[in-house]
Amino acid sequence: MIDFLKNISKVPLHVINTNISFDEYIPISIVASNKDLVFDVSSSKEWEAYLESFFLKHKKKVAFGGYLEQRDIYSRSEHFNKLSEENQRNIHLGIDLWCDADTDVLAVLDGEIHSFKNNTNYGDYGPTIILKHSIEGNEFYSLYGHLSLESLKNLEVGTKFRQGEKIGTLGDSSVNGDYATHLHFQLIIDIEDYYGDYPGVSSKKTLDFYKQNCPNPNLLLKLPNETLIEGLSKTR
């Protein structure tokens, strides 16, 4: 499946507004060991201020990365935080694209709506859409989390979308689980029994399974300078 996903496209694929050039993307790391994160990581407002400064400094519009990053940000929520270190869910299974609220979110490939849901736990996805893809006999799923509430209006399971077609917009911190605005984009091989939701963060104990079931989204996105991101090349 890894080789299949890698070879679906030879060029980078968009999951947000195509008017934003890939030249305006920049890698970002929010691993726990990043010494630049000298603020309260539990505060969405402080994240927004940090990202605004980051974009101004680098003259970019989208910051991306995060696959297999071990992060401190999830410790603020009981939804992720368990008593033992082994069971604490803090290893990120998707790629985040940090940018402005209301940015268009696009279907990465031809697909149909598998499910959708507003995941309202503190620190959760908020509004979420999952697409099902069937290509050359291979079935897999793409998850789009932290959307706007409007993104879930008038949706129906089975509705088909073409590659690059708008499926929603990004939500702000008031609806997206209390994060600075971003898209959580994740690939899933076996959706199991989930509906409108799927774990986007793993514990050390379950990581081997999730690394296999949730391969690197950059196999499709092919975002620039990916080797600068901790974890992005580990599943190649």
Automatic annotation (TrEMBL):
InterPro entries: Cell_wall_metabolism_enzyme, Dup_hybrid_motif, M23ase_b-sheet_dom. Keywords: Signal. One of its GO terms (molecular function) is metalloendopeptidase activity. Gene3D superfamilies: Glucose Permease (Domain IIA). Residues 91-188 form the M23ase beta-sheet core domain. The keyword Signal applies. Pfam families: Peptidase_M23 (PF01551). This is Peptidase M23-like protein. It comes from Tenacibaculum caenipelagi.
